[in-house]
Amino acid sequence: MSEVPSELKYTSDHEWLRVEDDGNVVVGVTDHAQAALGELVFVELPESGSEVAQGDACAVVESVKAASDVYAPVTGEILGVNEDLADTPEKVNQDPYGDGWLFRMRLVDPDVLGELLDAEAYQALLDELD
Amino acid sequence: MTEPLIFEHSRAGRFARAQAPVVREEVELPADCLRAEPPVLPEVSELQAVRHYTRLSQRNFSIDTHFYPLGSCTMKYNPRACNTLALQPGFRGRHPYAPASHSQGFLACMFELQEMLKGVTGMQAVSLTPMAGAQGELAGVLMIRAYHHARNETHRNEILVPDAAHGTNPATAVMCGMKVVELPTDADGDVDIAALEQAVGPNTAGIMLTNPSTVGVFERKIEQIAKIVHGAGGLLYYDGANLNAILGKVRPGDMGFDVIHMNLHKTFSTPHGGGGPGSGAVGVGARLQPFMPIPVVGREGDRYRWQDEKDLPQSIGRLSGFMGNAGVLLRAYIYMRMLGQEGMRQVGEFATLNANYLAARLKAAGFELAYPRRRASHEFIITLKRMAKDQGVTAMDVAKALLDYGFHAPTTYFPLLVPECLLIEPTETESKEALDGFIDAMCDIMERAVRDAEHLKGAPWTLPVRRLDDVRAARQLDVAWRPGSVDA
Fold first, then answer.
1. Yes or no: is domain A13-129 CATH 2.40.50.100?
2. Structure pTM?
């Protein structure tokens, strides 16, 4: 049973967002995603300062099974990335909602957060997949 | 027992001709041309080298030794005759720079191969020049781009790719400067038509489709798809990496495709899996014929000649120094001539029969088919998500366990849209006994998963090398031998 923290927002592509106090968001992949991918061996992250549109493939997570794109969950600017993952991609497996975060973004339009899934809706999506 | 590295057999001063003493001549070279240190090479006798590599070859899982149901790869038997005949001195000795007047026999074979491939695929013309499947794909999409550019429609830069397509398709589109638009697959493995209708538009350059798709089923709405894409001004690309399932039965040209690449090394009798050489011949419809890669073999009366820029001024150009891999093309030619039309139909029939037999028997044994309502093509998918959930035994564990039974594992975790999947392609050259043996092994593994999952997770148990740490191997990609790099 994968963990789905109640305070986060989710996408149907198994990404999570946490809204920070300053209104910016932190993005990562969900516990379900890391478990399905298996142990990660490589993470490619976007460049800080780049502009991305919702749905753009902006990062890659690669495991021994497969390489998967990570899509920008919202439109905005990449403010920073988790540099530690270059040497320790396994942090995504060990702590997907904490040390395994991928990148931080500045949102163009905060209203889009309302269109993302809440924990309950994401859990329902996972139940459906099962 | 593991075989040591060739470097571990090394003893200082030992060399291949140790038993045939030779007088070494001192050659005077300027000091600045001499290396300070000798190169790090294994120092072994000829016999040691022969034994080392023979032992390694005996541990290989190959078509010559094992059933090899690696889905999407078509690991079928390649008749020895194709290789023997392609090695005739007249073929082998022909220099690629030899003038056409000295190469009429070879050119005649290539011309006939082009004609036979046209017949098999229903296309208007064929170019044999791409050196491998990836290059065939590149040529195909470059032709689509050249076509739109020639019509001053340079804004057409979107290629539609279903998520059940070969993984190389999006990569090829990007290589050609296209944007990839992914299309979802419905629950029965067909392209989602509503999504396709949404996706096409004025920027559509084309669609790349594999049929049968990588989920192992025939795309039933292909005529509708062709109509929608053509209606939007786009072209249809057929990934013909594997023609086994349709050979002699249906033709991409008749389905409405404008271009196809064919991995001749897969379907038409060249051993593959070792990284080449290959052949990615392309077939085109009338619209793309002017853009074909050159050279192409033409016939005038009873003479054959290379057609080049002068004949095809709009060609996307040359893809290699010469005209593709001659040996692979010759084997394909001989294979097709050996089989004839009737034989090729049988390839299609037996490839699909074997796959459907395996699928039906595995289903009856309790394995879950990913697309239970569909008839398999040349390959099919089972999903082990139930086993993974209930017993913690994954598709990878089953794949490793199969090695202990003397079977090469099926393709694992591909396509990605089916969880814990095995993609199984038996090919037409396997006997019923071989298929039954595989089914017995799968049933035994299923039973062991319930009885002793832990033991299964440690497989393989009988091979010289046990379960590899593939995570460590990927994270620490360090494969070069250096003195002291192997633990004593």
1. yes
2. 0.89
